[in-house]
Amino acid sequence: MEEKKNEVAKLQDQEKALYAGFQTALGENNKFANFLMKVLKKRIKRVKKKEVEGDVDEEEESEESSEEESSLESDEDESGSEDEVFDDSICPTNCDIGLFELALQLREKRLDIEEALVEEKKMIDNLKKEYDTLSKKVKIVATNLNAAEEALEAYQREKQQRLNELLVVIPLKLHQIEYVLYGEIPSDLSGTLVFSNHSLGRLQERIVQLHEENSKQQKLNKECRERRKQLIREKREMAKTIQSE
């Protein structure tokens, strides 16, 4: 999308440069300047360029004229070009033939630029439509995914609850029991929790990690407080400087 926008901007710059160059070529106090500028800005129908394998007569004339207005055309020039009918096939008497031919050449180039602008803007519109369509699909997929994840999570919770309700006999050795009350193992172990040494090790590691994270956070908070004090001092000094000036 950004590449296409850059291409449009480049074409618009080319169009501006075309008009500026022609204006320079006309020079000052050229009595045919208005006529030559009308020749340059005139809208004409162009034959569509396409390859046809059959008879040449099957080529269709393009109904597409320049749909984009020149960014440099004024309303006055436009109305003049549309309302006034003039013959641009013959160079007027005393008019510089070189400038007349240059106007015709630049007109073709101008039409090429305008047609390219139309195509680029069509492509941008198509890309926008495609992007909007894909965005809507992504939102739908994301919504469905969230719903599926929530359903899966609810199922996992329900499954775990059902598993917790099951009574399971676990054979334990005496050294595996670390629940001691008053120096003895209680007769009722219903309130105890059974888990592996691996899980216990992970919990202990997590405790160490939390201590480290807490220390880092405290250090960061201290630095932020110091920075805040420094900014307050700088603000006061700046206010004094402004008042003294």
From TrEMBL:
Residues 45-86 are annotated as: Disordered. Residues 54-86 have a biased composition (Acidic residues). It is found in: Cell projection, Cilium; Cytoplasm, Cytoskeleton. Transmembrane segments: none annotated. It comes from the Eukaryota. Keywords: Cell projection, Coiled coil, Cytoplasm, Cytoskeleton, Repeat, WD repeat. The keyword Protein transport does not apply. Residues 110-165, 200-241 form a coiled coil. GO terms for cellular component: cilium; cytoskeleton. This is Uncharacterized protein.
